[in-house]
Amino acid sequence: MNTQAISTFSQRITSVEQLPKNLLDLDLATPIPDECDDEDRIENTVMAFRANLVRHMGFEKALKEMARCHRMGRYRLDEPNCLLITGESGCGKSTLRRTYVNQYPRLELEDRTLIPVLHLELPSQPTVKNVAERMLIQLGDPFAEKGSAEGKTARIVTLLKECGVELVILDEFQHFVDRSSEKVEYKVADWLKSVINDSKVPFVLMGLPRCHRILEVNEQLRRRFLPRVSLHRFRIDIQDERRQFFSVLKNLEKSLPLQSPSALCEKTVVPRIYYATHGVIDHTMKLISESLNIALSEHRPTIDQDVLRRAFERVIWADARDQDNPFHQAFKDRHLNRAGEPFYGYQ
Ligand SMILES: Nc1ncnc2c1ncn2[C@@H]1O[C@H](COP(=O)(O)OP(=O)(O)OP(=O)(O)O)[C@@H](O)[C@H]1O
Ligand SMILES: [Mg+2]
Questions:
Q1: How far apart are CA 118 and CA 64, in angstroms?
Q2: From ligand 1's centre to the CA of 92, what distance in Å?
Q3: Element spanning 59, H or E
Q4: 3-state class of 274 per DSSP?
Q5: Kind and range of the H or E element at 307?
Q6: Whose CA is nearest to atom 28 of ligand 1?
């Protein structure tokens, strides 16, 4: 099993007073002043738990593919090999992007900024103009909004070179496909192809599964984006993924700062967590973090099914009836993806 240990603070805590005052070196963890109250301490502990990065197999594989694409880019091939990463909402695409980019920070030189990896989110209604502008802003162009589309494109190609950009990551790429009509922004797709060709910098595109549609209809982009990785939800009807999901829960369990082992990895509870989260990492983190919050606030030594049931109501489905709550005994195994349910629209 390749799921790695997550960054952790694994000491078991028996009372609120024992919660560390200054958790990890997290960006989000503002040091808790001595006079802070229990609520602040609990909140910080929960947020620190929430900030754990789960390096599951799909995540590692995608990181590896990005690194490969990045390495290949250094050869400046005429047609750089690019990469498409798709996944449903909350499966960790943007987290992956940030994790990768953090390994290659910008470097301020006297005369310019080195940007090994340029990354940005595409606007919701992309046009050549607004995408080019966003790229220029990220490249530090003080006149990003000035000039014609051609002028902007030429500046992008120059700046990509001057800033030593080795890889570009574009997130939210599904905006190239209109949700209702499935119409693809051909113009922008063609423009993108020419930026890739002129700059010879490989691109990683990230977005929802409907991104595949863009490559279906644009054969020139399709050729450049042959390697594809999917960062999907865990599915317990597939044995290997069931193991991975279990492994994720086991690692999260290890990093829970609670007095006693929780119910997360119990045989009868794992499928309930699966139905409660649809196997999506975002919902899994939310459910367990909220459970930790409840356990700490109520001075409970552990997370049991009752805690999970209430956490589900708080962070996943407030209006769930008993039979819709996977942690209630009235629940019968089923996906919660009918219209009006939390996972409607997910596969
Ligand atoms: N590998 C991970 N380890 C821990 N938490 C994660 C991981 N991946 C995602 N998360 C949690 O899920 C949340 C949502 O993830 P993220 O924003 O990366 O999803 P996404 O695939 O980009 O979704 P969307 O398509 O809606 O933009 C994150 O804020 C984080 O809390
Ligand atoms: Mg995202």
A1: 18
A2: 3
A3: helix 57-73
A4: helix
A5: helix 305-315
A6: 282
Phi/psi-derived region of residue 136, left when phi > 0, alpha when psi is between -120 and 50, beta in every other case = alpha
Which atom of ligand 1 sits closest to the CA of residue 207?
Answer: 25
CB-ligand 1 contact for 92 (6 Å cutoff): yes
Which DSSP string do the residues of 174-203 spell out, in sequence order? GGGB-TTT--B-HHHHHHHHHHHHHH---E
Q: Is the CB of 95 inside a 6 Å radius of any atom of ligand 1?
A: yes
Q: Which residue has the higher pLDDT, 108 or 22?
A: 108
Angle between helices 128-138 and 186-199 (to 10 degrees): 40
- Mean predicted confidence (pLDDT) in 199-217: 88
- Residue 93 Cβ < 6 Å to ligand 1: yes
CATH topology classification for 57-230:
Rossmann fold (3.40.50)
Report pLDDT digits (tens) over 4-45: 434 333 344 444 444 443 333 334 444 445 555 888 999 999
130 CB within 6 A, ligand 1: no
Contact 152, 133 (CB under 8 A): yes
Q: Where in the chain is the domain with CATH 3.40.50.300?
A: 57-230
Q: Among residues of the chain, what percentage have pLDDT more than 90?
A: 67
pTM for the predicted model, two decimal places: 0.87
Ligand 1 atom closest to the Cα of residue 99 is 1
Measured from the Cα of 231, ligand 1's closest atom is 21
- Mutate which of 6, 28, 60, 94 for ligand 1 pocket (most atoms within 8 A of beta carbon): 94
Query: For 161-197, what is each residue's pLDDT tens digit?
Result: 999 999 999 999 988 876 666 666 778 888 888 899 9
Distances (CA, A) of 308 to 270, 302, 324: 11, 11, 13
Ligand showing the shortest atom-to-Cα distance for residue 234: 1
Q: Is 279 left (phi over 0), alpha (psi -120 to 50) or beta?
A: left
At 40-90, the pLDDT tens digits run: 999 999 999 999 999 999 999 999 999 999 998 887 777 788 999 999 999
Residues with CB under 5 A from ligand 2 (ion): 93-94
Compute the distance from residue 120 Cα to the ligand 2 centre, in Å.
Answer: 11
- Residue 309 — φ and ψ, nearest 5°? -60, -45
